[in-house]
Amino acid sequence: MVVGARVVVGDHSILLAHVVLYEGVRTGSHLFAHAHSVVREHCILGSHVTLGNGTIIGCDGFGFAKDEQGLWCKIPQTGPAILEDYVEVQALSAIDRASVGETRIGPGVKIDNLVQVGHGSSVGAGTLLCAQAGLAGSTHIGRNAILAGQSGVAGHCTVGDGVIITAQSGTHGDIPAGSVMSGSPAFPNRQWLRSTATFQRLPDLLRKLQKSDKLHQD
User: Fold this and answer.
1) Fewer CB atoms inside 10 A, N or C side of the chain?
2) Which pTM does this prediction carry?
3) What is the pLDDT of residues 69-112, one digit of tens each?
4) Could you tell me the sign of the dihedral formed by the alpha carbons of 148, 194, 158, 77, in that order?
5) Marked catalytic residue, from 34, 36, 119, 140
6) Is 48 a catalytic residue?
């Protein structure tokens, strides 16, 4: 275990082997940090937070800009990642720190394995991010939303409270509260169900169309 300078760890916390807390980290009570989890500099964790194996809180956001020679130059990522109370982040997930401001995970959020939360994003209370879900930078997710496995949200978008994004869906633009979205690009789930049912019938429809054209030609 490695603990940097000016780190404050709350009471009744458990830090297992190879946990690393960078300089200036602050945590509430009852932190449970599994082996090989990392909390980067100046990040803040609330009480009753659980970090799975290999989780990284506050890694650098993916921020680059081209210089006059066309080379990619790194944009400093100085804002902290903040996890509020009762957040659980499972194995090998990454929550990026912000370039400006903060990345914030609200109370009671549960994050599955292999999830990416981009820099400057926020996730509202009680939301679930399932395995391999990804949020691009500056994504804002409301309360009690569910992002199913391998779903993704484009950057600078707002997803409303209670939204469900089904598995392997890719969203773009803002999504109103209470919506259920499917597909890539995603659109309302009921319309998507009708569309996929029609898609499965396309070979039969094509054969019927070709047969009809042949009859007319004869």
Assistant:
1) C
2) 0.90
3) 999 999 999 999 999 999 999 999 999 999 999 999 999 999 99
4) positive
5) 119
6) no
